[in-house]
Amino acid sequence: MQFVICVRKAWVPVLLTTAFLYPQRNVFAQAADEYEVKAVFLYNFVNFVEWPSSSFNDGSQPFVIGVAGKNVFGTSLIEAVKGEFYRGHRIEVWMVNNPAEASKCHILYIEKSCTIFQQVLAMTKGKPILTIADTDDFMVQGGMIRFFMENNKVRIEVNQKVVNSHQLVISSKLLRLARIYNN
Amino acid sequence: MDKQTKSIRSKLVRLILIISSLSLLVAFTVLFTYEIISYRKATARELEVLGTMLAQNLTAALAFDNTSEALEILSSLRAEKNIISAALYKLDGHIFEQILIQPGHVPASTLESKGFTQTSQYFELVVPVIQGERELGFLYIRRSTQDIDERLMLYALIIFGVLVFCFLLTYLLSSKFEKSVTDPIIHLATTAKRISEKKDYSVRAVSAEDGELKTLTLAFNDMLSTIQTQNFEIQKHTHQLEQKVAERTIEIQRQKDFAETVVNSSLVLIAVFDSETRFIAFNNRCEIEFGVKREDVLGKRYAEAMPSITGSPSYKAVIRALNGEVVHHEKYQSPVSGEFYESFSVPLRNEKNEVYAALLTAHNITEIVNASEKVIRSNEELKRKNAELEQFAYVASHDLQEPLRKIQTFADMAKKAIKGDDALRNFLGKIEVSASRMSSLIKDVLEYSRLSKVEESFIETDLNRVLEYVRSDFELLIAEKGAVIDSGRLPVVRGNQLQLHQLFANLINNAIKFNERNPYIRISTQPVTAAELNVFPVSDRNKKYCKLLFTDNGIGFDPGFKEQVFTIFQRLNARDKYEGTGIGLALCKKIVENHNGHISVDSVPGEGTTFTVILPSL
Fold this sequence. Notes:
Number of helices of chain A: 8
Low-confidence stretches of chain A: 1-32
Strand order of the largest sheet of chain B: 2-1-5-4-3
Mean pLDDT of chain A: 81
Largest sheet of chain A: 8 strands, mixed
Radius of gyration of chain A: 17 Å
Shape of chain B: rod-shaped
Structural class of chain B: alpha+beta
Oligomer: heterodimer
Number of strands of chain A: 10
Order of helices and strands of chain A: HHHEEHEEHEHEEEHEHE
Strand content of chain B: 15-25%
Helix content of chain A: 25-40%
Distance between the termini of chain B: 107 Å
């Protein structure tokens, strides 16, 4: 933090900003790192999904993006959400190690090698938590959003029924470019 | 129709056309400008709305790296036919996706300008692509302005069409309308022209409409009436004037002829000179006098026409008259004719009292000069002779007295010496009487000749006193004849006492002597009448005169002789009947004339005689 502040106050912020942002943004074009793209996508969901106000106890409660299983994003997810807010709630990235923690998340990414995949997913049932995974059968398992690769690009599949049943609203704009899962 | 009316019509139409076209042009220009601005604004606003809406739709595609979706959304712009190109840029300024609808290009990378910009050919819009509060990238849209240009072109065409239409409409309407304005004016102008050409002021303009033109027409007609009336008056006056001028011309001609006749027939020489001494008049008398024709001198200078005149009194007098002086020469000899003249040189002045000519009038006095010289000469001769005669008379009468006294003395002595011879005594007596008569004759002549020498010593003389002396002188004769002298109060005059005594004595002696009755003599005074003074040749108006009348009842005489009685030695009666020398009345006349008086006589034979003596009183 100290370093970042120093950098922002420096007289060459453009250069440094570009240095920070470049690898992050570059993924869109070249899809160099799949997980970097997914990290950005995770963050971007914040802007295209609406959470019910009941999902926050108070204003100081952070908006939590939880990653269950192995941290496949490295620092890219943390970088992506750094200093960002959802309706005044600071966005934080948590590592979820047990199902109980999962219930406090607003977005939960379940890594495919997660040992407690099913328990975690089960914990989100009926709660306004956007569940995301890469696994092929995620939709069958009752997941909400699944990443998949098409033409070497990360694409999104959405199970709209599940999303809607969990008091979440996905932007129609997001739905337009997502593949809609239908049993 | 002539040029002028044409120009009024075309001017009016042109004016209306210019004004209406101008106002239309201004209105259209404002409208056009407003339209351009508002249309451009509307278009820009439209583009912004479009861009903003599109950017909203593009957020997901950009956020989730979906170019095909982005392309699809961008492709919706194809429905907008004016869009040239559009592009979606990532936050770092790189192109995410682009679409070229018409030939053109999109900026390659980061855009310097945000928002709306415009060039002559297109509008550019750059809007941020924002999801929630997060900026994801930028949308660039380039829109052609061709439709605006086309629309403006159409506008321009419509406006031009409307202008042309309005122009034609205005022209047609104004052409129709101007007739109502210009026709009465043209009518007026035509009427005025006809009047000025034919000078016929009885023509009137016809007034058709109301308003100012009617007022103008009425005023015009009014003016015509006034002109007609005045014209008539002027003509009348002119006629009268012409008549007067003709009369005056005749009168002037007559006066001129009159003046010329008077001047030419004058016995006086008349010549007039202008200010340069040139002859402007030269009458007949001058022609005769100088033997020069009028035509030869008129217009010539005095000295030029008569060179010998230079320096003469006449020439100098003319020069002086031209300088405003009146010059009178009583006598001078002309170097031209050699004759003597009396002349006046008079300046002639104009109404400004400036001398413009000199009048020279003269009359030939050569004969008078000659005559008076003769008179003077003979007068001197006469005086000399008179003096000689007086001297002679005095000497003669004085010297004659001596032998006469001797004749008387010796005749008397001889008469006394002779005794008895009566015849001889009678002869001697006759000698004595003749000698005595001759003595008194000589005395009278002496007396007469002496009268002229007593002009001095006039004193105040009381005629009453003079009469007293005469009465006492004739005491014996009065008593002998039984005469009565009746006299009122006589005046006191200034004169020679002795001569006046002689005058009274002679007149009274005559009255007693030429009388066959008892003489009655009345001496009275009367005022002198103006008529008498006029007849009286030596009268002086400044002096007072008194008139004495000596009236008697004597024998009288024939009034035909009343001038002759005053001639010396003139006797009207026989010497044997009435004694006298015949000198008495001549003496009286001389005395009265010595006193600057006058004597005359009136008589009726057998009834009496009245002598009238007028003498200067005090």
